[in-house]
Amino acid sequence: MSDFQQKIILITGASTGVGEGIARELLKRGAKVAITGRNPGLLQKAINELDPTGDSVLAIKADVRKLNDCRQMVNTVLDKFGALHGLVNNAGITGPHGVKIADYDFEAWQDVIDTDVTGTFLGIKFGIPAIIKSGGGAVVNLSACNGITGIAGIAPYTAAKHAVLGLTRAAALEYAEQGVRINAVGPGYVATPAILDLPQDVQTMMAESHPMKRMATREEVAKMVAFLLSDDSRFCTGGFYPVDGGYTAQ
Question: Would I find Acyltransferase among this entry's keywords (predicted)?
Fold first, then answer.
């Protein structure tokens, strides 16, 4: 297990779901983490569950769609911990399901793009300079198995996750010589609390879309993210790492 002692990691969209699972894994490995979200109540609940003392976890209310929020969230981490060694751009939404492009509401499209693509761009924009000043480190962007495949009915999400992968590759080339590695993780369906609240037939459909006939756990995604943030992956940059039970091999 990689050692994250003295490492400061910022994770967006981490008050619930996959992001909260990533925070939990990094805390187990000795990191100090900053988590962001839009809902103060959910952020406080996450703090209570992750680290009631607040010594190792900082909660920041931030909307990744907004430039000033993203600038301020990085500054808040630096003010609290004095450095930033890793960034996980996890915040994202899927938008409406089962809607063809011609029928898709423009505002709903814009919300997906602003959250998933602009949010990742702004995280990189403000996070990387802080990482460079802290001596280098890594960025992990959450794409999806749909980042390299197509799927009908959620075109904005599919387009957004393709864009996240493009941002990852471009940023990796731009900052390779400055000691910052940037990679993307592509989960399939993940058994988050929200997914496990769906009807059983929907869960079964999701599970059986993977050749391994189950969904990923949050821990499995978190362990891949931890690997890519760690020195164990020090020669890995610009890559796409699926955690999808074979979905993208089909």
Answer: no
Domains and CATH numbers, the chain: 8-242 (3.40.50.720)
β-sheet with 240-243: strand ranges across: 57-61, 32-37, 8-11, 86-89, 137-142, 180-187, 240-243
Q: How far apart are the first and last CA of the chain?
A: 31
Tell me the two tokens of residue 214: 């189950």
**In this structure, what is the dihedral angle of CA atoms 196, 202, 204, 207, given to the nearest 10 degrees?**
-70
Evaluate whether 140 touches 9 at the Cβ level (below 8 Å). Answer: no
The number of C-alpha atoms within 13 Å of 198 and in the hemisphere containing its C-beta is 14
Active-site positions?
Answer: 157
Compute mean pLDDT per 10 residues along the chain, 250 residues long, and list them.
89 97 97 98 96 93 98 98 98 95 98 98 99 98 95 95 98 98 97 92 94 96 98 98 96
Query: pTM score, two decimals?
Result: 0.96
Asked if 62 and 73 touch (Cβ cutoff 8 Å), the reply is yes
